[in-house]
Amino acid sequence: MIVAFSVSPLGVGEDVGEYVADAVRVVRESGLPNRTDAMFTTIEGDDWDQVMDVVKRAVAAVEARAPRVSLVLKADIRPGVTDGMTSKVETVERYLAPED
Predict the structure, then answer these.
(1) Sheet harboring 34-36: ordered strands across?
(2) What architecture (CATH level 2) is domain 2-96?
(3) Where are the domains of the chain?
(4) Of 30, 53, 79, 95, which sits 20 to 30 A from 4 (CA to CA)?
């Protein structure tokens, strides 16, 4: 299962990087494969419980310091697939590669 999520504090002003870093720290410490970009953090695990526990703890880390929290989440639930974060990107890159 792959989950892409964005957690944002509300009511703390425009500079939210420090709060987002709290959430990303939780994800990285989970030991699950993950990737963070400008809009989302993506995490991959074996099942709902494993992945959603990390998301819940990441939200809690922001919630501990902000009066309100916004969460956006998208999930790809595909049992039996591992390393989907990498293989999906590799597939697209293969189609983008110039033909010889």
Answers:
(1) 34-36, 41-44, 2-10, 68-76
(2) 2-Layer Sandwich (3.30)
(3) 2-96
(4) 95
